């Protein structure tokens, strides 16, 4: 940016002798537009306009703290923009814009200039840019160090009528972009804001799946992904929160990446299940909802990021979380996996655990705990959305119509008689039924919220090689930390029943 000094220097060359004060700008018969004013003349005219308005807005008579930012020719005239400065540094976000018509006549002055500021001085030591950035990132709970994309700039912010020295730090974390103002001496984050414009959209989903909401699987079949009246009847209208406004299914907690590349300029995403976009909407809505639920429990650092989700990205009847890319992938074999919220929440469970303890599940027991926790997440989510005792301890009833012979169909049960170690067979999904049963019993005994809170808290205490015994110890420690151990007696009996 160039300093504003040229304005006063050129002021003598003004072609105008009078400036229409903005408040009294006349509206008359439109005249034929003249070519835009030359920028030199425009700056001079704008300078005169500012001087004419100085008393009204409190500008200094010499305009010495207004720095020229830009001169922009537009269809309807020229806009000359200034930045308010303090000690030659930017007073963040405070600008003045002068609008000139095509004849170079001042039409309007728009100002967020703050007059008569007292300036806070740095008494001992000014933070370095790196220190300021570290403070901003710590405040946002961002781990893993600074990103090369983060930007830092020294200037001033207005706080309680004072100009306070501060660094503006714009940090990037996943899809999030946050502007923080950090006090340049004490490192306190004075204010921050999310730079992404989040909007809510609308969409239609199965919630959690058509078998649960219909009350049975009768008449519901995949039929090679075709629509049917029975399935369309189970669509529910929902609000899609936190979209970034791009028109794509990208938001605070979910970033959909798919061949369908689903887009809506009005953020209205109404599809039936035969459309590939339907799975995009399902994945967005349910993952966003589960993450928001976790945050209502008080956890702001459990997988709090925009997770990339590849829907319909495999023709297998399988879905997975990748610990290397940190992405989720949903397959289309049988019923498309992302048509069932139980399956979506299960997979999201894997990403939660890896986020809390990177590398978790290095042992067979750890793997089984991962599958069991995923089933707990899926089943308790389904129970919360569509409570119905006929589906107690079941998960993924719609997905399961293509392979389960039980009635209602289910991916697995969370109430098997399996015990440790007798019924271990070395396959993580099978052995996960021991773990999911214990966790599901916790939800029955304490309610979903308390159980989920204890379980999520317990994950933080684990290590990549943790097994069942470590998991139970961590659950009891979490209950001690969160609830003073008030659930210990029940926890003892719940886990003893599973042989743990
Ligand atoms: Zn799994």
SSE layout and pairing:
Layout: H1 6-10, H2 39-52, H3 54-57, E1 66-74, E2 77-86, E3 89-100, E4 106-111, E5 118-119, H4 129-139, E6 151-159, E7 162-173, E8 176-183, E9 189-194, E10 199-205, H5 210-214, H6 229-232, E11 236-243, E12 254-257, E13 268-269, H7 276-296, E14 307-314, E15 319-321, E16 328-331, H8 341-356, H9 364-385, H10 428-446, H11 448-459, H12 468-483, H13 488-496
Helix pairs in contact: 7-8, 8-9, 9-10, 10-11, 10-13, 11-12
Zinc ion (ZN) binds at residues 346, 350, 371, 374.
Description:
- It is a single chain.
- This protein is an alpha/beta fold.
- The protein has three domains: about 5-115, no CATH class; about 120-195, Nuclear Transport Factor 2, Chain: A, CATH 3.10.450.40; about 200-495, Orthogonal Bundle (Neutral Protease, domain 2), CATH 1.10.390.10.
- Helix content is about 30%, strand content about 20%.
- It contains 13 helices and 16 strands.
- The chain has helices spanning about 5-10, 40-50, 55, 130-140, 210-215, 230, 275-295, 340-355, 365-385, 430-445, 450-460, 470-485, 490-495; strands spanning about 65-75, 75-85, 90-100, 105-110, 120, 150-160, 160-175, 175-185, 190-195, 200-205, 235-245, 255, 270, 305-315, 320, 330.
- Strands 5, 6, 7, 8 and 9 form a five-stranded mixed beta sheet that branches. A four-stranded antiparallel beta sheet has the order 1-2-3-4, covered by helices on one side. A four-stranded mixed beta sheet has the order 12-14-16-15, covered by helices on one side.
- Helix 8 (about 340-355) crosses helix 9 (about 365-385), helix 10 packs antiparallel against helix 13 (about 490-495) and helix 11 (about 450-460) crosses helix 12 (about 470-485).
- The radius of gyration is 30 Å and the shape is elongated.
- The termini are far apart.
- The model is unreliable at about 1-35 (pLDDT under 50).
- The chain binds zinc ion.
């Amino acid at each position: 940016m160039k300093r504003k000094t040229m304005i006063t220097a050129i002021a003598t060359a003004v072609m105008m002798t009078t400036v229409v004060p903005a408040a009294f700008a006349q509206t008359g018969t439109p005249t034929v537009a003249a070519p835009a004013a030359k920028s030199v003349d425009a700056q001079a005219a704008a300078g005169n306009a500012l001087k004419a308005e100085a008393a009204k807005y409190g500008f200094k008579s010499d305009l010495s703290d207004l720095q020229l930012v830009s001169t922009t020719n537009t269809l309807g005239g020229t806009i000359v923009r200034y930045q308010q400065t303090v000690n030659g540094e930017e007073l963040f976000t405070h600008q003045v814009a002068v609008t000139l018509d095509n004849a170079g006549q001042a039409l309007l002055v728009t100002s967020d200039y703050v007059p008569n500021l007292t300036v806070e001085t740095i008494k001992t030591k000014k933070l370095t840019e790196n220190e300021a950035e570290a403070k901003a990132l710590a405040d946002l709970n961002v781990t893993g160090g600074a990103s090369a994309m983060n930007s830092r700039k020294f200037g001033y912010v207005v706080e309680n009528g004072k100009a306070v020295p501060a660094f503006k730090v714009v940090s990037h974390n996943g899809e999030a972009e946050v502007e923080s103002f950090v006090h340049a001496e004490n490192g306190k984050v004075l204010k921050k804001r999310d730079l992404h414009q989040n909007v809510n959209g609308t969409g239609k989903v199965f919630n959690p799946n058509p078998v649960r909401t219909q009350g049975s699987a009768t008449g519901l079949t995949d039929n090679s992904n075709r629509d049917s009246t029975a399935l369309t009847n189970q669509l529910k209208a929902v609000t899609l929160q936190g979209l970034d406004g791009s028109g794509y299914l990208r938001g605070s907690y979910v970033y959909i990446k798919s061949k369908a590349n689903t887009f809506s300029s009005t953020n209205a995403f109404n599809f039936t299940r035969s459309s590939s976009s339907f799975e995009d909407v399902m994945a967005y809505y349910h993952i966003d909802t589960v993450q928001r639920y976790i945050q209502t429990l008080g956890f702001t650092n459990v997988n709090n990021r925009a997770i990339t989700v590849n829907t319909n990205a495999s023709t297998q009847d399988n879905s997975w979380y990748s610990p290397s890319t940190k992405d989720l992938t949903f397959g289309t074999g049988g019923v498309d996996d992302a048509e069932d919220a139980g399956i979506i929440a299960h997979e999201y469970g894997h990403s939660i655990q890896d986020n809390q303890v990177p590398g978790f599940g290095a042992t067979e027991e750890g793997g089984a705990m991962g599958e069991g926790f995923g089933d707990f997440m899926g089943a308790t989510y389904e129970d919360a959305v569509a409570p119905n005792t006929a589906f107690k301890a079941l998960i993924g009833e719609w997905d399961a119509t293509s392979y389960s012979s039980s009635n209602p169909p289910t991916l697995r049960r969370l109430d098997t008689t399996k015990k440790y170690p007798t019924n271990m067979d070395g396959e993580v999904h099978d052995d996960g039924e021991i773990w999911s049963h214990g966790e599901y019993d916790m939800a029955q005994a304490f309610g979903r919220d308390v159980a989920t809170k204890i379980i999520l808290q317990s994950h933080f205490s684990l290590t990549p090689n943790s097994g069942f015994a470590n998991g139970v110890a961590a659950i009891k420690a979490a209950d001690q930390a969160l609830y003073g151990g008030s659930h210990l007696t029940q926890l003892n009996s719940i886990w003893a029943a599973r042989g743990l």
